[in-house]
Structure to design on (177 residues):
């Protein structure tokens, strides 16, 4: 079984590329030219996203290094206690909708301090996988295509993130406590 999976994994990508090239040949599509044009569009998109990414990264760095994030966690402590969210995970819950990279850094810190098999390590990992980078998506992708009205998407995205956080706490507590 493992040997079959190894063979499939080795040949899957080359066969897929060959299938694409054969399909392009049959449909008389200039595959190389289309590939190069897609590369150009991808590069243009990356350049247009750069200001949005830079602004987001600077804002997150300021939030973390200024101590504002720690102050916000202290302010939210009564709500966190009510929801059963450990204070150590509040920075993750706050940063996850903003930036996947910042949230991954917080998750890595939690796992390094408490261990991957600890309650906090499991909860951080589950929260990381159960939520999304809502503000990042809205800022970068909506901004890149020029969408200005994003109020409903913001509300629904943040509600989904909040539900993901709460359900993560419930499930991890239920399974591992």
């Amino acid at each position: 079984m493992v040997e079959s999976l190894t063979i499939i994994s080795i040949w899957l990508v080359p066969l897929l590329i060959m299938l694409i090239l054969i399909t392009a040949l049959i449909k008389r599509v200039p595959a190389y030219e289309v590939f190069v044009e897609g590369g150009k569009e991808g590069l243009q998109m990356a350049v247009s996203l750069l200001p949005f990414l830079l602004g987001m990264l600077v804002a997150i760095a300021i939030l973390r290094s200024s101590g504002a994030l720690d102050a916000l966690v202290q302010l939210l402590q009564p709500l966190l206690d009510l929801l059963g969210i450990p204070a150590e995970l509040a920075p993750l819950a706050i940063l996850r909708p903003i930036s996947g990279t910042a949230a991954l850094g917080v998750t890595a810190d939690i796992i390094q301090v408490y261990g991957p098999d600890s309650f906090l390590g499991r909860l951080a990992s589950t929260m990381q996988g159960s939520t999304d980078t809502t503000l990042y998506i809205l800022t970068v992708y909506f901004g890149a295509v020029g969408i200005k009205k994003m109020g409903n998407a913001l509300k629904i995205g943040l509600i989904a993130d909040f539900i993901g956080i709460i359900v993560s706490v419930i499930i991890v507590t239920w399974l591992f406590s």
